[in-house]
Write a structure and sequence with these properties.
InterPro entries: BilAc:Na_symport/Acr3, Bilac:Na_transpt, Na+/solute_symporter_sf. α1 packs across α7 (162-185) and α3 (66-89) crosses α10 (252-263). By secondary structure, this protein is an all-alpha fold. The chain has a single domain (32-316), classed as Up-down Bundle (Na+/H+ antiporter like fold), CATH 1.20.1530.20. The chain is 78% helix and 0% strand.
């Protein structure tokens, strides 16, 4: 397995997992504009999400990294194993199986941070997990790929995109660090920035999804098996991540966070690695999977957010009805108590009057 990153322009991709892979059959200028705009928007988005992070809580996660450890176990334990089992179960062609496995071995993507914010998850844990999984990918990606491909007899070595991983870390940590500083110095202003960032994040995801379909249409194929795997793979990641977090007695907030972190992969890193390792002819069978996975993980994320919002609204309505019923009950009890008190006083007055009359007689 080669460990060097070639000088291909694909290595210069940034951390936005929804960006288009360099080298697809698109116009160069349009691709460059899309890449630059996406990089700038992603940097601003991570800055705004950093405004929700408190340094005290972040340090607490680092000092007691139990939640981070569970997340890394999901990321580099459950996901590669799931990818391997899916490739074997569906009897995929060698090129397709490698694409699925590479996706499973990739670190978490920044898209999970956006969805975590929308479901009121633990943002400190989410950003820490994304950063730690990206750092761990330097060693865990080649290790997982080596272990799971031992029985496959690959004819071509896989090139780990270390330069891409480094750029991902820079694009992730620097904006977040600025956001944490702003939240520490100007907490009121950071809330406004965070609200704007949430809107920008939604727009960014929609733009990336539409642009991914339009600009990368030359890489799609009609293989229903790959589309099926790309649909169920992120769902399995979300469910298994949530269950493992639940079994390790994490809070509900952390369970939601770890679930979203597990199912959301860095699509750009997967595409870059495939481009560095395989020929254009081989890529025709491979690139459709990460592109479809990226779209389905967006869809799954939006569905999870919608389900959570509906759940919160239902809870709010139930609490409102309960409070209203309690208020009405308390009012009725108060009225009954006043009536009983009035009747008692009336009887007391009557008895007092009768006693006075008897005494005078």
């Amino acid at each position: 397995m080669r460990v060097n990153c070639s000088s291909s322009s694909a290595c210069t991709a940034n951390s936005s997992e929804g960006e288009l892979p360099v080298g697809l059959e698109v116009h160069g200028n349009l691709e460059l504009v899309f890449t630059v705009v996406s990089a700038v928007m992603m940097g601003l988005l991570m800055f705004s999400l950093g405004c929700s992070v408190e340094f005290r809580k972040l340090w607490a996660h680092i000092r007691r990294p139990w939640g981070i450890a569970v997340g890394l176990l999901c990321q580099f334990g459950l996901m590669p194993l799931t990818a391997y089992l899916l490739a074997i179960s569906f009897s995929l062609k060698p090129a397709q199986a490698i694409a699925v496995l590479v996706m499973g071995c990739c670190p978490g993507g920044t898209i999970s941070n956006i969805f975590t914010f929308w479901v009121e998850g633990d943002m400190d844990l989410s950003i820490t997990m994304t950063t730690c999984s990206t750092v761990a990918a330097l060693g865990m990606m080649p290790l997982c790929l080596y272990l799971y491909t031992l029985s496959w007899n690959l004819e071509q070595n896989l090139t780990i995109p270390y330069q891409n991983i480094g750029i991902t870390l820079v694009c992730l940590t620097i904006p977040v660090a600025f956001g944490i500083y702003v939240n520490y110095r100007w907490p009121k202003q950071s809330k406004i920035i965070l609200q704007i960032g949430a809107i920008v994040g939604g727009v960014l995801l929609l733009v990336v999804a539409v642009a991914g379909v339009v600009l990368a249409k030359g890489s799609w194929n009609s293989d229903i098996t790959l589309l099926t795997i790309s649909f169920i793979f992120p769902l399995i990641g979300h469910v298994t991540g949530f269950l493992l977090a639940l079994l390790t007695h994490q809070s509900w907030q952390r369970c939601r966070t770890i679930s979203l972190e597990t199912g959301a992969q860095n699509i750009q890193m997967c595409v870059t690695m495939l481009q560095l390792s395989f020929t254009a002819k081989q890529l025709v069978q491979m690139l459709s999977f990460p592109l479809a996975y990226g779209l389905f993980q967006l869809l799954d994320g939006f569905l999870i957010v919608a389900a959570y919002k509906m759940y919160k609204r239902r809870l709010k309505n139930e609490h409102r009805k309960k409070d209203t019923g309690c208020a009405e009950g308390c009012h009725k009890k108060k009225s009954t108590s006043l009536k009983e008190t009035g009747a008692f006083l009336e009887r007391l007055i009557l008895r007092t009057g009768v006693s006075q009359v008897v005494a005078r007689g």
